[in-house]
Amino acid sequence: MKKILIVEDDNDLAKLIKDYLRIEGYKGIIAEDGINGLQIAINEDISLVVLDIMLPKLDGITVCRKIREISNIPIIMLSAKGEEMDKILSLGVGADDYVTKPFSPMELLARIKAQLRRAGFMDNKTLDNDITDYGELKIYSKSYKVVLSGTEVDLTTKEFQILDYLSKNSGQVFTKEQLYDGVWGCSEFMDENTIAVYIKRLRGKLGEVGKKSIKTVWGLGYKWEYCGE
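Below the sequence we write its predicted structure tokens.
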């Protein structure tokens, strides 16, 4: 039984999420503050974290950042504000998805299932597809590592997954919906701005290589065509 950590100080909401998870065959573990949530994420065998941003003792953004220092487990952030900055901050520190309160429990379940499917797919990639080598740019699928001109590039999990997906399908144009479906595992609850945020951050972290290689196909979407510095 997969363990899902729910870090949420609204006890009624946390119990509601836990009940829905139990019906679907998952074990929900509740933490009511950021410090307790971080300790559980580090010490327990957790498959996914549902993490509120506004938490006592330690905020969700900080918890997410600290989890990302040691683990690539999927993280879905929750926020009552629905502000664009919350989303940008969440994705920037390594969250895989973002849900605004109030939300449908069934929507959250769908997102959880999609993240777990995607995590399982990435874990089961074969060694034959481990490295995409462009000379100065090397993408290591198994270890989630990118090296540019001999220096490792610090990417979040989702930034890496988008780059890996695009580069393995070089030259193919993906709409935002197709890219979301390929990386997140579903597009039913897609937010198009999420893709735009990740593409912008990827281009920034990869410098000129990213700006030249991740191409915008106006009216359609994005594609990868490697262009060295």
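The helical segments are 11-23, 34-43, 60-68, 84-92, 105-123, 157-168, 176-184, 192-213.
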